[in-house]
Design a protein that fits this description.
With 252 residues, this protein is α/β, with parallel strands linked by helices. Strands 3-2-1-4-5-6-7 form a 7-stranded parallel beta sheet, sandwiched between helices. Helix 2 crosses helix 8, helix 3 runs parallel beside helix 4 and helix 4 packs parallel to helix 5. The longest helix has 26 residues.
Length: 252
């Protein structure tokens, strides 16, 4: 085997059993399809699927339901004998009219923060050496974890919490052979951001804040996520990979 083939193999996810939440649309759907296309066995979770999954298994599941999550992890391990990776991509952003209400805050945290906490722990237990063979967890955060944006405090707080949760989980699960990292997208053209994307002024303003001068497509997150799930990132844990077109780095 050549050195080039060896390096390429380290980035491979072929044959890995990976669960992806939020796989019904947007970033989660793109990641699930991209990993499946790269040879992974993907189980996608969502409350509903907007279109037929592209090459991956789909399971309807509410990520705020602990019993459903436990049943899912148990079923995957029973069926395949292992779990190799988890991508927590499910997320919600509720309308700004009630952005400071208690219910909006708690509902947002239930999906965006508590679900990765609970499912992450369940997945790590299944991956834990010697029960499993180790693995990787990827939590999807947001620029909102680092910067202030208007009229969406619950979303930003929830994503900032996930960034810190990632570091805590990396410490707790490291001795189990489980790595935990975050993937931090910038503005991505999805259903969640449709209003801004279709507003010509907002679209241009957001693109101008990046170095690359454009919004991300959901598929832009696939390669970075695959890296964090693969052996190529075997010495990477407790960190955040920012995929924002240079938004955070850009000055004047």
């Amino acid at each position: 085997m050549s050195g080039e083939e060896t390096a390429r193999d380290r980035f491979s996810v072929a044959g890995l059993l990976i669960v992806v939440t939020g796989a019904g649309r947007g970033i989660g759907a793109a990641i699930a399809a991209g990993l499946a296309n790269a040879g992974a066995q993907v189980r996608g979770l969502d409350r509903r699927f907007e279109s037929a999954p592209r090459g991956y298994g789909a399971t309807t599941c509410d990520v705020t339901d602990d019993d459903a999550l436990r049943a899912l992890v148990d079923a995957v391990v029973r069926e395949h004998g292992r779990l190799d990776g988890l991508v927590n991509a499910a997320g919600i952003s509720l309308p700004p009219q009630e952005s400071y209400s208690r219910d909006t805050f708690l509902d947002t945290l239930a999906v965006n923060t508590l679900a990765p906490l609970r499912l992450g722990r369940m997945a790590a237990e299944a991956m834990r050496i010697p029960v499993g063979r180790g693995g990787s967890i990827v939590n999807v955060t947001s620029l909102g974890a680092h910067l202030g944006f208007p009229d969406n405090p619950a979303y930003q707080a929830s994503k900032a919490a996930v960034a810190q949760l990632t570091r805590a989980m990396a410490i707790d699960f490291g001795s189990w052979g489980v790595r935990v990292n975050s993937l931090c997208p910038g503005y991505v053209a999805t259903a969640m951001t449709r209003a801004s994307y279709e507003d010509a002024d907002a679209n241009r303003a957001h693109a101008a804040r990046t170095i690359l001068g454009r919004w991300a497509d959901p598929e832009d997150l696939v390669g970075p996520c695959q890296f964090l799930l693969s052996e190529a990132s075997a010495y990477v844990t407790g960190t955040e990979l920012v995929v924002d077109g240079g938004w955070l780095a850009k000055g004047l």
